[in-house]
Amino acid sequence: ETGVTQTPRHLVMGMTNKKSLKCEQHLGHNAMYWYKQSAKKPLELMFVYSLEERVENNSVPSRFSPECPNSSHLFLHLHTLQPEDSALYLCACGPGKYNEQFFGPGTRLTVL
Amino acid sequence: AQKITQTQPGMFVQEKEAVTLDCTYDTSDPSYGLFWYKQPSSGEMIFLIYQGSYDQQNATEGRYSLNFQKARKSANLVISASQLGDSAMYFCAMREGLGSGGGADGLTFGKGTHLIIQP
User: Fold this and answer.
1) Nearest CA in chain B to A38
2) Which of B47, B66, B114 to mutate to test the interface with A (most CBs of A within 10 A)?
3) Among A6, A31, B3, B74, who pairs with A104 as Cys (CB 3.0-4.6 Å)?
């Protein structure tokens, strides 16, 4: 079983829709992360959860709402998004032996 | 100011040649870690190699090695004997404050280098 899974892999939504991204980790790590990857920009850290508590919110607009019900699952709830929110959303967990993070395959989001 | 700078947006390299991907970083924290990730077209970020700020030796992992020059604040990735499967985006990243935070801090990434290996 792969370490970090994300669903859906692709999502197209209108600006008035509400949708959720799901992340599941099978590695037993205590921290989980959401990153946003836009074209020609570095990965941006959005949220950090440690032991199911949010420890960092990197000035993300309130139209993005994270949820971490347990140490294996992380959600990103989306509502009234803007076209500029179109990006690859990557989930990660960690830390590993070298403080590294393990990433999922991402959800490619397109907002129309 | 950018914390991680990767000055090579794209590189073309002949198969079997060695390739060096540049990375410079900026931090005033004495305790930090540097990471390299590979991102194929599938999108998943794959961890390659790690260098801690207090490590005395350069990190190596198979065909990957990290040329760590602390005084210059550079952490270049060297890939020996490149293969067609090495074609991907490569990202340098840093985590500051390794002595605190319990390991939950996020990583700061550079913009990446698009490496293309030619047969």
Assistant:
1) B111
2) B47
3) A6
Q: Structure tokens of B56? A: 């005395």
For B34-78, write each residue's pLDDT tens digit.
Answer: 999 999 998 889 999 999 999 989 999 999 999 999 999 999 999
Residues paired with A101 in a beta bridge? none
Mean pLDDT of A9-18: 92
First to last CA, chain B: 38
H-helix or E-strand spanning residue A47:
strand A44-50
Q: How far apart are CA B101 and CA A39, in angstroms?
A: 30
Q: What is the DSSP letter of B116?
A: E
Query: A40 at the B interface (CB within 8 A)?
Result: yes
Torsion sign over Cα B8, B20, A103, B33:
negative
